[in-house]
Amino acid sequence: MAQYSRVSGNVGLITLQNPPVNALSAAVRQGIVDTVKRALGDPEVKSVVICGQNGVFCGGADIREFGTHMTGPPLVPMIHAIEMADKPVVAAIEGVALGGGLELALGCHYRIAHTKAKVGLPEVTLGLLPAAGGTQRLPRLTGLPAAIALITTGRQITTAEALKLSIVDQVTDYSAVDTAVKFAKSVAERSLDGRRVSERPCPCPPDVDALFEAAMQKVRQSARGAIAPVACVQALQAAATMPYALGMQREKELMATLFTSGQARALQYSFFAQRAVGRWSLPSGARWDGSKPRPIRKTAVIGLGTMGRGITVSLAQAGLSVIAVEAQEKPLKEAQQAISGMLQRGAKRRGGAPPLDLITYSANLQAVADVDLVIEAVFEDVALKKQLFQHLSAICKPEAFLCTNTSALDIDLLASQSRHPELVVGMHFFAPAHVMKLLEVVHGSRSSPEAVATAMNLGKQMGKVGVAVGNCHGFVGNRMLKPYLEQGLFLLEEGATPEMVDGALEEFGFAMGLFRMSDLSGIDVGWRVRKGEGLVQPGASVRVRQGRRYSPLGDLLYEQGRFGQKTGRGWYRYDNRHEAKPDPWLNNFLEDYRARHGLAARRIECQEVLERCLYTLINEGFRILEEGIAAGPEDIDVIYVLGYGWPKHRGGPMYYASMVGLIKVLERLEHYLRAHPDVPSLQPCSLLRRLVASGSPPIHKWRKIIKKTQSHL
Ligand SMILES: CCCCCCCC/C=C\C=C\CC(=O)SCCNC(=O)CCNC(=O)[C@H](O)C(C)(C)COP(=O)(O)OP(=O)(O)OC[C@H]1O[C@@H](n2cnc3c(N)ncnc32)[C@H](O)[C@@H]1OP(=O)(O)O
């Protein structure tokens, strides 16, 4: 709802009230319509201020209403009525003005914002476009290039930037509401000529066609297959080429196609999933709402390779003091230089000073004696990590949390090296650690709820989305990757090429197909993992290992010194470091390999590539749910969208399975299992069968069935 009062004699003050972000629910929209009418009809009121309660202007339309039968007054005429008012209306922006919230502010005649507020039109991230006039009003204020950049990315900007772009008229360090009220009084008698944004012309550069062509190319490349960014460009094109009223009509038509699209539903699911994972629970019954994180002031990072550097930067950027430890002087110096550079570049982008003073460098492990929390990021070698945990346990104060950045190793084994195993958790960061938002927080069987809560909270402070997961080889993300990668190799054996497999996956929406990804992360890295699992037999090319089908193709490439991008050769050829080109050598190699093993190459359709790669990955996801390694499908989906390049507009693997239909996933797995009975990852998981037997309930009902399945185990 919206509250109305008269302040400072003759200013009508409208306060949006819908905690926590004053989203524009039906009740709030009705409240705005009613209070605006009241203010404009009151002869004592000479000007109006619109603000939000509790220091937040407005987080936009109420996303929870989407997909329901929407009632209440629509936004477009409501904002139009405000713009057409004959009394000045001022938006007082505190906290955030996002989406419909910013569109409401753009309909006001003036915008006054607090220095710490953020504004933006993030609708594209929800599969929509700003359809309450945002695509038509914003370019009239900022010009087309800035509007294209803001609307197609959904980027939220500071009010300092918004002031430069003329989105806001004034920025203040004091209360934006008090400032706006004073301002509203001062402009009460002023003419509104030129203040109604919709009446302004849209500034058009001479090369407008080229501008839109480039914009379209950029969105098609960066968000492969996503329809909302394309529609955003089309709506902006309408702003540039049509009168306002027709532009609004076009905006509405484009929104109509997006609003009910599967992509919008998937992205909105993802929005709530990213918030739901914060409400973690453990198999012991411990939960986020009953477990208090301990405050962390002093941290340490051990091992300053690529991951350690990124983690150090992330901690310092979150305002935490860090002791950064690297045993050897030369690598320590190199790391110091690299970290300083990363912080400086970060500060240039974000504004402010680089937090260089928060980091102390040391070659001596004793330097971590009084820190509250250690994150070790030494080489992924179990013996090395075990030894380090013994040392840390002896050196650190007894109440210090010991965290390991590992992508697969056993947390219980490492915890058993410490005198306080309850304070040990895994913190699996993703490279580059100062950029990637995902953090898997891995709880071992003895990790305390306080340790999990502390790691999750620290992740949040670092700007990460933490997902609490159980302890197993590869945790959630890497464990699911294994059958996916394995299918890629099997497909090569059967006649596919890397570019064909990658093409299908990239067409599906992955930023990178599995072979390009393997070349980027390093074929040697995968080899080391398989070696650790006892799967590598140098020189051998036997296709059955540990009683199941195995493809040695990756190992054979490793033996050829083809490690991927870093050596210029892998599944592809790299003449310049990043561009993957099909390599005739590889095709010959595959032909020889098939001939040696009596394998006949056959034509493989894209559909088979997708079904085998994706459904085995999804099947492993069901196993993970069944075992309680992930608490719910949202956890897996968040991990895959934020950490593994799963196309955002497809929600995540488990959401995708629910959309394709669980029965179809089950039937196709059974079909491929009949063709490849020696591949256990094609054996449908019993939870999948159970869900299908229960009538394939919608994804938000899976948890109930998972709980029942777990209680049967
Ligand atoms: C046929 C054609 C039909 C056409 C019909 C058209 C009708 C629609 C017309 C116009 C549409 C306008 C589009 C929009 O405005 S879309 C919404 C745009 N806004 C956003 O995307 C903002 C999303 N929110 C955020 O970015 C953040 O939440 C932020 C506001 C920055 C706050 O961040 P933070 O402080 O970190 O807090 P949380 O993210 O954890 O959020 C706290 C809780 O608030 C819930 N929330 C946030 N925003 C919304 C929202 N817009 N609607 C509903 N709920 C929202 C969030 O889920 C958290 O809830 P919980 O604690 O329960 O998880």
What hetero molecules are bound to the protein chains?
ligand L434P2JQ
- Net shape: globular
Strand order of the largest sheet: 12-11-10-13-14-15-16-17
How far is the first residue's CA from the last residue's CA? 49 Å
CATH architecture assignment of the largest domain: Alpha-Beta Complex
Instruction: Tell me the Rg in angstroms.
Output: 28 Å
Mean pLDDT: 96
- Helix fraction by DSSP (H/I, runs of at least 4): 40-55%
| Number of discrete helical segments | 28
Q: Give start-end ranges of low-pLDDT stretches.
A: none
- Estimated share of beta-strand residues: 5-15%
Keywords: Fatty acid metabolism, Isomerase, Lipid metabolism, Lyase, Multifunctional enzyme, NAD, Oxidoreductase, Peroxisome
Subcellular location: Peroxisome
EC number: 1.1.1.35, 4.2.1.17, 5.3.3.8
Subunit structure: Monomer.
Describe this structure in words.
Strands 12-11-10-13-14-15-16-17 form an 8-stranded mixed beta sheet, sandwiched between helices. A 6-stranded mixed beta sheet has the order 1-2-3-4-6-9, with helices on both faces. Strand 3 (47-52), helix 2 (75-83) and strand 4 (89-93) form a beta-alpha-beta unit. Helix content is 47%, strand content 12%. It contains 28 helices and 19 strands. The mean pLDDT is 96. The protein is an alpha/beta fold and 713 residues long. The protein folds into 4 domains: 2-259, Alpha-Beta Complex (2-enoyl-CoA Hydratase, Chain A, domain 1); 298-475, 3-Layer(aba) Sandwich (Rossmann fold); 496-593, N-(1-d-carboxylethyl)-l-norvaline Dehydrogenase, domain 2 (Orthogonal Bundle); 606-705, N-(1-d-carboxylethyl)-l-norvaline Dehydrogenase, domain 2 (Orthogonal Bundle), CATH 1.10.1040.10. Helix 8 runs antiparallel to helix 9 and helix 11 crosses helix 24.
